[in-house]
Amino acid sequence: MTSSKILFFLCLSFIAGIFINSIIKVPQFFVLGFLFAGILLIFLPFVISENSSIKKFVIRGNSSIIGFCILFSILGILRMQISEFNIANDKLSKFNGKGQVVLTGTISDKPDVRDTNQKLKIKDEKSKSMILVTTNRYPEYRYLDEIKLTGKLEAPIVFEDFNYKDYLLKDHIYSVMNFPKVEKLDRGRVSIFSCVYEKILLFKQKLKQSIQDNFLPPQSSILQGIILGDKSAVGQDIKDKFRITGLSHIIAVSGMHVVIMSSIIMSFLLFLGLWRKQAFYGAVIFICIYVVLVGLPSSGIRAGIMGIIYLSGQALGRQTMNSRIIVLAAALMLLANPLLLFYDAGFQLSFLAVLGLIYFEPFVRNFIKFLANKFLNFKISEKYERALMMLTATVSAQIFTLPIIIYNFGTVSFVSPITNILVLPIIYYVIFFGFLSSLAGIIWAPLGWLLSVPCYFLMTYFLWVIDIFNKPWAYKIISNVSWIWLFPSYLIIGLATWFLNSSRLNNPAL
Fold first, then answer.
1. How would you label 187-217 residue by residue, b for 16+ Cβ within 10 Å and e otherwise?
2. CA-CA distances (angstroms) from residue 496 to 190, 264, 363, 398, 493?
3. How does pLDDT run across 120-151, given as a tens digit for each residue?
4. DSSP annotation of 472
5. CATH 2.40.50.140 spans which residues of the chain?
6. What is the pLDDT of residues 251-301, one digit of tens each?
7. 277 contact partners, CB below 8 Å, separation of at least 6
């Protein structure tokens, strides 16, 4: 077994451990038992006699690898249990619903400014716990402002159709405070990281202002979502239209966005005369900055990892994007925050979509070619290959993400394959001209306006497609879906994928 395959199984085992402990609280007795079994399997080949008939069976069965997989599963279980322990013993959440408190803390992220209010993530000075504070739209606050709060701490509310508590749980926020008395004190302590982060946020604000100067709503708000990952700028009516037409992924930072942005930067650096290796390092640095720029969402981090892998594959002259890399990226993210697995729909959707592209898309594409050739006597030429891939990629990603979408959002779009085919070909140019015009607008406003003209026409077409397919018949709402149905759904999808890929190997024409 190759080292990359062993790493793949170890990462899968770690993820499985987190998954198991998320649905079943594993007792310490079982953890110790599996720990002993894993260690026994690892050392079994070394303690059995060379002449023993069991020796060959143990070696052939890779008992050491199985043992390490068990140990990595235990690591996943323990990582989740540590996270649960930290939640249960959070010092600040013990004051939820206990009356008025006085706290001093620092704003730890860019304020989320809405029409009538703003939300601030505050890191408490004493407990180091995070609080989400909702306060008035004015006065304005900045990242690293130190403030004094006087108000009541509450546990996040669990609504009938939305678990706000679980939504905040993944961000390590266990307490909220609504419209407290806020007193601005001073600037918090500035480290090298916070200083760099503040400069990136300032640059983001300038890009945002440049977009607003060059485009009118709703184009400006949609571009802020597409380029800067700022979905709060997009109105609820526009979000509903995106959801109905199956285009919500356009305003969520994904691997597509990062690959496009990195390709633009790579081409620009090569145009300036840099060597390919220098341009590669420059693009990697840009990806890291861009992921921070869009707010470090799980989809953005995953997209950043995928973007760096994509560039590395180009630099090495080979394709390195496969399921093993995807699972490694997932394991690293879950090592940092195991709560993402169950409480972050974006994390689930992004990885499932990529797995759909890897395992299901080739079969769907070849199957359509097979049908066209057999029944229509039509051979799809290479010039139509890109359009076909857009269709099959959309269908594959939607099949793999459909159960999660129904469970979390309760909406199924019937027109998604059509709208994606009509829109995806222009997204590269929307991002290209949108980013270029916003960047140029910071330097010289007339140049920014000039470069925004192509993007304006592309966005007009984009909105026209959305309006055409934003109809009552284009979607179906499915409410009160239990999480239990996810298991048979993905079991069926997994078995179908395995069977279809096996059939494809036996019949190359498919």
1. ebeeeeeeeebbebbeebeebbebbbbbbee
2. 54, 38, 11, 15, 5
3. 999 988 888 899 999 998 888 888 888 999 99
4. G
5. 93-189
6. 776 666 676 777 777 777 887 777 877 788 888 888 888 887 776 666 667
7. 315
φ and ψ of 147, to 5 deg? -135, 160
10 Å Cβ neighbour count for 415? 20
Tokens of 357: 């592209």
Amino acid letter, 126: K
Residue-level pLDDT at 297: 65
Contact predicate 136/179, CB 8 Å = yes
Is the pLDDT confidence value at 15 over 90?
yes
- Please name which of 228, 235, 198 lies closest in space to residue 210, comparing C-alpha atoms: 228
pLDDT of residue 150: 92
DSSP state of 132: E
The torsion angles phi and psi of 393, rounded to 5 degrees, stand at: -65, -45
DSSP 315-366: HHTS---SHHHHHHHHHHHHHH-TTHHHH-HHHHHHHHHHHHHHHTHHHHHH
> Residues 152-170: what's their mean pLDDT?
83
> What is the distance of C-alpha 119 from the center of its chain?
22
Q: Rounded to an integer, what distance in angstroms lies between the CA atom of residue 281 and that of residue 499?
A: 41
Just give the CATH number of 93-189: 2.40.50.140
Query: Model pTM?
Result: 0.79
